[in-house]
Design a protein that fits this description.
A: 260 residues, Rossmann fold, six-stranded mixed sheet, four-stranded antiparallel sheet, B: MetI-like fold, 72% helix, binds adenosine-5'-triphosphate, binds magnesium ion
Chain lengths: 260, 283
């Protein structure tokens, strides 16, 4: 399987001296869904912003399909934590924002399909302010998907939503993923979300952020959130997460080494 | 109009492309607030009219509304008024365009380039502190007593609020929306056109309205300093000849022109600002 994303020695120190990431190595095969979990402030968003090319690394590099990332890459899409719809554009125009280079007819067709997939056809001509939180997040998802990215980055995309909407959108994301099988990198603080969606779950350890643990999720899709196996995975991931939040010790450092 | 209500029209992707943001229906004008607002001045005018008619007041320094109306009517009928209106509007219009364009361009430059901002902004802020009328003698000396100095004075008045408004608006554009542009690989002109410009549009409209208001203020100053034409000239003329009705008529014309010009900006901007999700002042 080809490699979609290659991250090596990636480190980021912010101008204020804050060491957000201290050397990340990750390889993500094409079509994989990778979840990233970790405590608050451990550098998850920073990692995503570096992959997206919105931030420049202090050391190390990111490759997308072989290309060195030195700025936003055409094959990479990003869904922010908030919908970030442009308030002066209709929902349809927001979704089509990245398609300015296409002829109007094709753009409309692509936007129409994308809106249909996220169930917002009826809201195509609404203003963003007229959408509910979940609808706005779906529109943001459609905006990212409509450009057919090979790699889609999602930064806690559902964290602001209620539990029910969140579950619906998770299932929804899987359906959308099934259309073109892009590589997904999903940041979340929700263990269950990580296990429902991901093929592998990376746990980051804070200050500075680095990979603490990688777990493969060996559950067939669609996944039953109530199954025994799911519970087992949950327990295992929760243990890893707790471990990552514990203060650095010699023991945990050797564990990190083992995990890598 | 809810999105559901128009759902039927929007099912085809082509309809979406053709329609763009939803076609807005014009709201039926509600005259009641206007009538309510007119109550006080109309009542005061009627009372004054009654006082003068009944001989309780002479109305020599403050003529009754009827006499002002007659004066205004005569000025309009004889055609004497229109050259004045034209001259004043022309000056304000030209000064507004010059000052507005200069204000927008330097506001953009100041917000785009930190160097420009550090270099030029302190000077502009200093110049802004100068009371407008202090410029008059200098402009008369430099630019002569004719149109140039008047238009320049008005342009100066328009420039500062537009400059400040544009600079503040661009610097205040939500970084999160700019990142949406960056992730779509927009930069330079495209970023300005597709993100910055729409984002600052509401603030730009406010800045232009403020600028235009100052333009009307400065045209009075400019015409007061010496003009043979213009509404400001009617003011001076009315004072020198002791015609308070002409002064008040001129003031009314100023008010009317200012209101019409402001309403024109609002009317031009409203379609582009439909998207705003703002508190509407308890409407
Ligand atoms: N622009 C910035 N300038 C300076 N420091 C920053 C900046 N952005 C983030 N940081 C710091 O870098 C560290 C990692 O931040 P980041 O936003 O990546 O965390 P996170 O894992 O996404 O946290 P959360 O789960 O709370 O969103 C934090 O300690 C934060 O204070
Ligand atoms: Mg974050």
């Amino acid at each position: 399987m080809s490699v979609a994303l290659e991250i090596s020695g990636l480190a980021k120190t912010y101008p204020n001296g804050q060491r957000a990431l201290g050397g990340i190595d990750l390889t993500v095969p094409a079509g994989e869904i990778l979840a990233i979990v970790g405590g608050s402030g451990c550098g998850k968003s920073t990692l995503l912003r570096l992959i997206a090319g919105l931030e420049t690394p202090s050391a190390g590099l990111v490759r997308v399909g072989g290309d060195l990332v030195g700025g936003p890459h055409p094959a990479v899409g990003l869904v922010f934590q908030e919908p970030r719809l442009l308030p002066w554009l209709s929902v349809a125009d927001n979704v089509g924002f990245g398609l300015a280079a296409l002829a109007a007819g094709e753009r409309a067709a692509r936007v129409g399909t994308a809106l249909e997939r996220v169930g917002l056809t009826a809201h195509a001509n609404a203003w963003p302010r007229e959408l509910s939180g979940g609808q706005a997040q779906r529109a943001a998802l459609a905006r990212a998907l409509v450009t057919r990215p090979q790699v889609l980055l999602l930064d806690e995309p559902f964290s602001a939503l209620d539990a029910l909407t969140r579950t619906t959108l998770q299932d929804h994301l899987l359906e959308l993923w099934a259309f073109e099988r892009p590589t997904l990198v999903l940041v979340t603080h929700d263990i269950e979300e990580a296990l429902v969606l991901a093929d592998r779950v990376v746990t980051l350890r804070p200050r500075p952020g680095r990979v603490d643990d990688i777990q493969a999720v060996v559950l067939s899709r669609p996944r039953d959130r109530d199954s025994h196996n799911f519970e087992v995975h949950k327990r295992r991931l929760r243990a890893a997460l707790n471990q990552s939040l514990a203060p650095d010790t010699l023991a945990s450092d050797s564990l990190t080494a083992a995990a890598l | 109009m809810t999105a559901e209500a128009t759902a039927g029209l929007e099912n085809s992707a082509l309809a979406i492309a053709a329609a763009g943001p939803r076609p807005w229906s014009l709201p039926r004008p509600d005259w009641r607030p206007l009538l309510l607002g007119l109550g006080l001045p109309v009542a005061a005018a009627l009372a004054w009219e009654a006082l003068v008619r009944s001989g309780l007041a002479t109305g020599r320094l403050l003529p009754p509304p009827s006499r002002i109306a007659v004066t205004l009517w005569k000025l309009a009928r004889t055609g004497e008024l229109w050259p004045h209106v034209g001259a004043t509007s022309g000056r304000v219009g030209l000064g507004f365009v010059l000052g507005g364009v200069a204000g927008i361009l330097s506001g953009l430059a100041a917000s785009y380039s930190p160097l420009f901002r550090r270099l030029v902004d302190p000077t502009l802020q200093g110049l802004r502190a100068i009371p407008s009328l202090a410029w008059v003698p200098l402009f008369l000396l430099w630019l002569g007593i004719f149109e140039t100095s008047k238009v320049a004075l008005i342009a100066v008045g328009v420039f500062f609020p537009v400059y400040l408004g544009v600079m503040g608006a661009v610097l205040g554009v939500d970084r999160k929306l700019v990142e949406v542009g960056r992730i779509h690989r927009l930069s330079g002109l495209d970023l300005a056109r597709r993100i910055l410009l729409p984002a600052i549009l509401p603030a730009l409209v406010v800045a232009l309205r403020t600028g235009l208001g100052l333009g009307w203020m400065f045209v009075v100053a400019a015409e007061y300093m010496g003009a043979s034409e213009g509404i400001g000239y009617l003011l001076v003329d009315g004072q020198q000849l002791g015609k308070p009705d002409q002064i008040i008529a001129a003031i009314l014309v100023f008010a009317l022109l200012g209101k019409v010009a402001d309403a024109a900006i609002v009317a031009l901007a409203t379609p582009a600002l439909r998207w705003q999700d703002a508190y509407q002042g308890g409407r």
